Amino acid sequence: MKKFSIVIAGGGSTYTPGIVMMLLDNLDRFPIKTLKLYDNDEERQAALGKALDIVLKEKAPDIEFSYTTDPEEAFTNVDFCFAHIRTGKYKMRELDEKIPLKHGVVGQETCGPGGIAYGLRSIGDIIELIDIMEKYSPDCWMLNYSNPAAIVAEACRILRPNSRVLNICDMPVGTLRRMSQIIGKTPEDLDVRYFGLNHFGWWTSVKDKEGHEYLPEIRDYVSKHGYLTQIEVDTQHMDQSWQETHKKAKDLLAVEPRFLPNTYLKYYLYPDYVVKVEGSDPDYTRANEVMDGREKEVFSAAKTIVEKGTSEGSEFSIGSHATFIVDLARAIAFNTHERMVMIVENNGAIANFDDNAVVEVPCIVSSDGPEPLSQGNIPEFERALMYQQVTVEKLAVQAYIEGSYQKLWQALILSKTIPSAKVAKEILDDLIEANKEYWPELT
Ligand code: NAD
Ligand code: LMR
């Protein structure tokens, strides 16, 4: 089997060790010749790079491993770039969450004003990464799961329409894993129909390979327990705040009892609950939970491995939630025609929705990329919600490109998470101040 060369952009990410361990666990399906880590933060990159160097020498000495902050070195002679960068790091995520909360509005990484703020930071860096990739490895594919995926994908659609960039999110896969647990199956047994935007969608069918429909059974479970399951099925979304989110799916189902909801809809359908009841502590948000949890764990495991000179006894855990990345890379590399939920331009996949909207739907992925599967017409309620939200995303990207204050204000006004134009303006002015280093000047 051909062996592939990969660069992980955002090599200093808390997810990098889990993804590297997952790749090592999948070498029989996806053989690796070269693995490089690339980050623009030397300290973070070295901390994880040194530890992973030890891990690779112990577990897969045949793989040529390196880590760097030099774009040319990173992107020369690679087949795939797995991109998970966070422009502004947790310091800025914290502000994305805390600034809206100060105004009584949802403070979240990808939804509402926080997501818009993060989007305006991410666009420039992602476009730069694409350009670097195309300069040094013109045939390389970027599998991009940097957030906020909806805004990033819309920016790629407008600014780099012909680039080999595939945008994907792990939430549909993660929730399918929970669904499969509910009905005693594995995700590989199941095919779904799904429509929506990223972090804003609904499952309309969950069938096994024989064609048996499990939607009613799963709906029945979710109407009582949400997506909370007894067994640990998704190692990524296990913290307390995520348990609240899985549980809340019960109330999302009540709004549209026919379909199974994406958990992120809670920020749009129950923003008052999220802010007041669920316990959005304006001084301690998800960013703090991640910094005190995942980030500390990953970097202290790395430190221990480097100090001991071995990974024995202090191994990184395998990010098994991320095997979708291998499935996607295999689909491109081996033309597998894998069916995956991807973020793509609509072009008729949702029949009664704009052709040029970025949507999330099942696709067949081959070596030419994703081919969206038709999901037919969607109901009026979901269509209206989606139209409002996709316009937020489009206006945010236009605001970035044109440097338009007015358009960004309109984007915020349209977000279902924000109660009025006045509050939108107050939040916007605070976000501009906080993002001076990252955003284009808005006039
Ligand atoms: P993190 O802050 O730990 O890691 C991000 C890394 O990116 C940092 O080391 C940072 O220095 C680096 N970086 C920032 N800008 C860069 C640039 N221009 N070039 C190279 N490196 C750069 O964040 P994390 O929590 O590990 O998350 C990483 C990313 O993955 C985020 O965008 C997050 O939202 C995303 N994510 C996506 C999914 C999904 O399925 N779509 C799931 C989980 C996380
Ligand atoms: C988090 O765990 O909060 C994020 O980094 C990723 C996610 O899926 O929300």
UniProtKB/TrEMBL annotation:
Keywords of this entry: Glycosidase, Hydrolase, Manganese, Metal-binding, NAD
Cell inner membrane as UniProt keyword: no
Domain Glycosyl hydrolase family 4 C-terminal: start-end pairs: 194-417
InterPro entries linked to this entry: GlycHydrolase_4_CS (IPR019802), Glyco_hydro_4 (IPR001088), Glyco_hydro_4_C (IPR022616), Lactate_DH/Glyco_Ohase_4_C (IPR015955), NAD(P)-bd_dom_sf (IPR036291)
Highest rank taxon of the organism: Bacteria
Pfam families for this protein: Glyco_hydro_4, Glyco_hydro_4C
CC cofactor note: Binds 1 NAD(+) per subunit.
Cofactors demanded by this protein: NAD(+)
PANTHER family xrefs: 6-PHOSPHO-BETA-GLUCOSIDASE-RELATED, MALTOSE-6'-PHOSPHATE GLUCOSIDASE
Family: Belongs to the glycosyl hydrolase 4 family.
Protein name per Swiss-Prot or TrEMBL: 6-phospho-alpha-glucosidase
Protein's organism: Salinibacillus aidingensis
